[in-house]
């Protein structure tokens, strides 16, 4: 069972259905992570009904199931295929294609049990049913999931109500609802017996499977809790490792910053010393310039005296 638990509550009924109908061929339209399909396969293996099972899905998602890589994509398909092939490959196959593309691969009247769980708009589920109806055998039975979901543009519930006016069937309200419809000319005895139950007996029978389904869901929830606890512990470990790495980086950054501050202080000290030396040199140069100016004045005065003496001597 995966983390998609919307079908888990119907797993006990899937086993009861396979045990009583013993279909020669079972087809599922819309498999995703495989919770419903693998349940049917396990029931076939458990009761040894020699049922041929075929799953049809693109594993690309839709507007209801989601279309991102976390919900669909090659990884989801490969995980399912690996689990499936190890256990059920001898009587089951996964066909990676659109529902309409798979139609030509089935002969008319060749399917005893069909599970429709694709896009859940009214138009889509009606199209799927009408397209695949010729493929159903004289004792054919069709399953519809999400028959009680009425939010957004889900329309299975509406189409299901219309079908009950044309065919015998019954449904479950737990786990988003599951409709069971007998569409063949020959209604299987087990299906006919259930449809003929009086209301109180039928309600007790339905409640029994809801109880069994809730037991499966309880196990599923426990598994999911354990999974998320494990995931949380893993994330805590990653956060702790990240925190330690960050602390080490901050410590290294602080040490580098302190070293740079020391180098900056030393550089500032050198600059201050240089500036003082330059100021001292400027003062010395100014003093020498003053002295040089005074010497020039003395030389001019002495030159004038010599010139005057020469003039007197000439006279």
Short description:
The protein has helices at 11-21, 35-47, 74-88, 99-102, 122-132, 156-163, 189-195, 199-314; strands at residues 25-29, 52-57, 92-96, 111-116, 136-145, 169-172, 178-182. It is of the alpha/beta class. Strands 3-2-1-4-5-7-6 form a 7-stranded mixed sheet, with helices on both faces.
Order of helices and strands: HEHEHEHEHEHEEHH
Work out the helicity level.
55-70%
* Neighbour order of strands in the largest sheet: 3-2-1-4-5-7-6
- Tally of alpha and pi helices: 8
Q: What would you note in describing this structure?
A:
The protein has 315 residues and is of the alpha/beta class. Helices cover 59% and strands 13% of the residues. It has 8 helices and 7 strands; from the N terminus they run αβαβαβαβαβαββαα. It has helices at 11-21, 35-47, 74-88, 99-102, 122-132, 156-163, 189-195, 199-314, and strands spanning 25-29, 52-57, 92-96, 111-116, 136-145, 169-172, 178-182. Strands 3-2-1-4-5-7-6 form a 7-stranded mixed beta sheet, sandwiched between helices. β2, α3 and β3 form a beta-alpha-beta unit. α1 (11-21) packs across α2 (35-47). The longest helix has 116 residues, at 199-314. 27% of the residues are buried. The mean pLDDT is 90.
